[in-house]
Amino acid sequence: MIRPPDYVLGIQPYVPGKPLEELERELGITNSIKLASNENPVGPSPAAMQVLQCSFANIHRYPDGGGYYLKQALAKKLSVGEDELILGNGSNELLDIAVRTFMKAGDEAVMATPSFVVYAMAVQAVGGRPVQVPLKNFMHDLSAMADAITPATKIVFIANPNNPTGTINRMDEFEQLMERVSDDVLVIVDEAYFEYVSDPDYANSLKYLRSDKNVLVLRTFSKIYGLAGIRIGYGIGRAELLTDMNRLREPFNTNSIAQKAALAALGDTKHVRHSRDVNKAGKKYLYKELQALGLPYIPTHANFIYIPVEDAAALNEGLLKRGVIIRPMGPKAIRITIGLPEENKRCIEALKEVLNA
Ligand SMILES: *Cc1c(COP(=O)(O)O)cnc(C)c1O
Fold it and tell me: Is 46-266 assigned to CATH 3.40.640.10?
């Protein structure tokens, strides 16, 4: 019987959650709310929805493999060249392409733990070794991560803000890390929640775009832009770096519908601002209520809150029965996506009931 190599057998497949409808049927509930995957609860921009309605006319044609119009708009917005941009079927795909481009079996990649689980999976998929550095005060410990770099290191992953803790790394510590990274290492800065961050000290990773360092910045339309379901994200990096990644990119990796919706969403700055405001108000409400419940939380720079708890599995089960879907993070923490006001209220009410039960 054919078997995959050992390094593939070492990867735990991603276990998808059940469809909402199925979960409701099994639990005998209705009207459940999903606060588990950090999507924008407001939904997509109305401008993107509008474009989607009339984007089906040409689906018998292959998409524009270069993503011409979307890259043009991104280049203008970010003041970078179109050749400094790469589009992906979600930023997840770009992580994968970067790993396959720059790593081979036996190489190492430094990352934080807990952080986005996809980094380790992508590295293992090429027979690489994930070197996982524990968070310090729920933040990436950038100096310990620099210490973990060896001659075998090819990539350093930084999620900024970090998922699941919502913490950020600031400019000074990021600069100190960059000083210690040599020019044969790629630093991937995953900024999936970039648009939510308002802290003035937030590390500006694009500062290194044209330096002698190798930086790939990843952003996405899945979070504040509300387009998680149609899968599109982008990377910003030096042109030569992206030329190498384009060697492994499928010619038509992003679909035509996603390209059009993303272009419209990008232009709808009002919707982005509104989404940020809804998140800010929801965060304030949840902080106040969590505090009243005696639940310590980690202050977040994104659209989700990490809460250390005694028994994450029991809490999760109790919430599920009440139709509130959140994400347990190991045995001792949960992560709650900040929702709409009524969703946040229901979440708090359910938490109260479960904690008092
Ligand atoms: C949600 C998320 C992404 C986005 O993935 P897409 O493939 O763009 O949907 C990337 N990184 C982190 C840390 C995330 O939380």
Answer: yes
**Rounded distance from Cα 107 to ligand 1 centre (Å):** 24
Place of tokens 């919502």: 166
Tell me which H or E stretch contains 156. Answer: strand 153-159
- CA 165 / ligand 1 centre spacing (Å): 14
Ligand 1, residues at Cβ distance < 6 Å: 38, 90-92, 116, 159, 163, 190, 192, 220, 222-223, 228, 233
pTM (2 d.p.): 0.97
**Domain 15-36+270-356 maps to which CATH number in 3.30.43.10, 3.40.1700.10, 2.60.120.280, 3.90.1150.10?**
3.90.1150.10
Instruction: Report the separation in Å between the CA atom of 119 and the middle of ligand 1, taken as the mean of its atom positions.
Output: 11
Query: β-strands 33-34, 324-325: how paired?
Result: parallel
Atom of ligand 1 nearest to the CA of 89: 7
What average pLDDT values come out for the chain (357 residues) when binned by 10 residues?
93 83 89 95 97 88 96 98 98 98 98 97 97 98 98 98 98 98 98 98 96 97 98 98 98 97 98 98 98 97 98 96 95 98 98 95
Residue nearest to atom 12 of ligand 1 (CA): 192
Which of helix, strand or coil describes residue 144?
A: helix
